[in-house]
Amino acid sequence: MNLRVLYFARLREHFGLAEENVDFAGATAADLVAQLQARGGVWAEELAAGRAFRVAVNQDIVTLDAILPDHAEVAIFPPVTGG
Amino acid sequence: MNLRVLYFARLREHFGLAEENVDFAGATAADLVAQLQARGGVWAEELAAGRAFRVAVNQDIVTLDAILPDHAEVAIFPPVTGG
Amino acid sequence: MKILVQAEAFDLGAEVNAISQGHTDIGAIASFVGLARDSNEGSGVQAMTLEHYPGMTEKALAALVDEARSRWALLDVTVIHRVGRLLPGDSIVLVAVASSHRGEAFAACEYIMDALKTRAPFWKKEETPEGERWVDARVSDDAAAARWTDS
Amino acid sequence: MKILVQAEAFDLGAEVNAISQGHTDIGAIASFVGLARDSNEGSGVQAMTLEHYPGMTEKALAALVDEARSRWALLDVTVIHRVGRLLPGDSIVLVAVASSHRGEAFAACEYIMDALKTRAPFWKKEETPEGERWVDARVSDDAAAARWTDS
Fold this sequence. Notes:
Chains A, B: Pfam families: ThiS. The complex is a heterotetramer, with 2 copies of chain A and 2 copies of chain C. Chain A is α+β, with helices and mostly antiparallel strands. Chain A has helices spanning 9-15, 29-37, 41-46; strands at 2-7, 19-23, 54-57, 60-62, 73-77. Chain C is an alpha+beta fold. Chain C has a single domain, classed as Molybdopterin biosynthesis MoaE subunit (Aldehyde Oxidoreductase, domain 3, Alpha-Beta Complex), CATH 3.90.1170. In chain C, strands 1-6-8-2 form a 4-stranded mixed sheet, sandwiched between helices. In chain C, a hairpin with a 2-residue loop joins strand 9 and strand 10. The longest helix of chain C is centred in the C-terminal third of the chain and has 18 residues, at 102-119. Chain C is globular, with a radius of gyration of 16 Å. The two termini of chain C are 26 Å apart.
């Protein structure tokens, strides 16, 4: 399936990427994170176990066991710091 | 001793008096209240045991056992309702 | 710190700007405006008149602001309370509190309002279709004020 | 109800007037303004830039305002959050809540701020003498937000 994946703030800067289309054969948000981590480098570093990041699917924050629907808008970003 | 006694809000209206000088031979705020109550009529009614009123001495709220200094400014008023 | 008792309307925006202007250490300003409502305890209210105890009012307000400043790290406080005749929709009271952090600003602002309601010498008289009446003190206001001494 | 994400400054007085104008059932308006400070965690801050997630931001803010409205009897709510580059002393966020009674207005205003701090997708990057840095989420903000679910 195909996902639109967005990155924000520190992740956007470290990945050098705000947005991409990702071919995805897995099922959950955790599977997507594992697929991105497997790219190595900054991807492995920023998405390592123990690093704080959040995942939103179609603009709602989800837990890593969430199932990703086809054509979902998935966003990965650091804990928020507004206000 | 001589006291300046002020009344506010409902008490001012019922007593028909905003302020008076009172010759006082007692010691405490309770003594003053008893002296005023002894006037009978609205005084007895408004200052009866169980009626809610507050006493301030020189602009600080006090309890009825407070000693009244000579020439004190004593105010008697209903519970406050501002804000 | 600014404490005013006045008949005139106040301007929340101007008061909060006056607190923040030229300051770069303020992270949070919590503020409160109390307004005259058109009904109370089941009756329509056409207008109200606020009476106060000149002299004691300012002293009582200063005392409760000092208490708030001793409990929380505050950078500035403004309290303005109107007196005289007010119509429904008119503003009655303003409390604005500046602090570095929002928790302290919120707590102090609510503390000052709760304390003011039970300890500052203001009295409200309402004009209703049934005639004039003095507003009775609320049990809920005593409970709100008591929270701060219980904790 | 009004929710805005904008680069422009806002006017607290005008926003609160817009809430109260023509209403005579509002007894209380609690409001909060968050401001950019000139220091954070021991460093000087010369400026900050607020990034957000367009689309999700408005959705997240609307969701937490709805939660507040389901918990408390509110008459109106305004939330405005700025994005882009801000200088120390600039306002960042405004939350204003109108209710019949002050306890509900205060609680809902603080709830919305606490929820916004942990759930609305905004990120701050600070410019300091040591260079640029992304602000880390605060443990104290998580604790503040958690209060509302514990109770």
